[in-house]
Amino acid sequence: MPGNKLVQKIIWTMSLLKKISFSCKEATLIAIQREEYNTTFFKKLKLFIHMAYCAPCRLFVKQTKIISRAVINYQDVLFANPHHKLSAEAKETIQNKINNTI
Fold first, then answer.
1. Of 7-16, 26-35, 39-48, 88-97, where does mean pLDDT reach its minimum?
2. Which of 31, 56, 59, 101 is most buried as measured by Cβ atoms within 10 A of its Cβ?
């Protein structure tokens, strides 16, 4: 019966989509993991497929990349020219507060 083959193809396609697709929450988690360290090829593929149909996740990934680059650039500038230094008086005040709480 031709109708059964069509139903079987639809069921097969739906089961495949269930394996590949996932929620935006999972997509953002994988996007963050991808920024911090390598992820598996399968996770990257799932993220790519998810972002193909999810505009908010595409925007999130774009913003995450911008923030990561900004943080890296700021760290480079900060370590090259540290301008945030505590005075001796501020250090002593902090140390006294620590000692008083212990």
1. 7-16
2. 31
Longest dimension (CA), the chain: 87
**Cβ neighbours around 61 below 10 Å, total:** 21
The pTM of this model reads: 0.56
Tokens describing residue 82 = 């540290």
Nearest to 28 by CA among 59, 72, 68: 59
Strands (E), 1-102: none
> Residue 46 and residue 19: Cα distance in Å, rounded?
9
Residue 26, SS3? helix
- Residue 69 backbone phi and psi in degrees, to 5: -65, -40
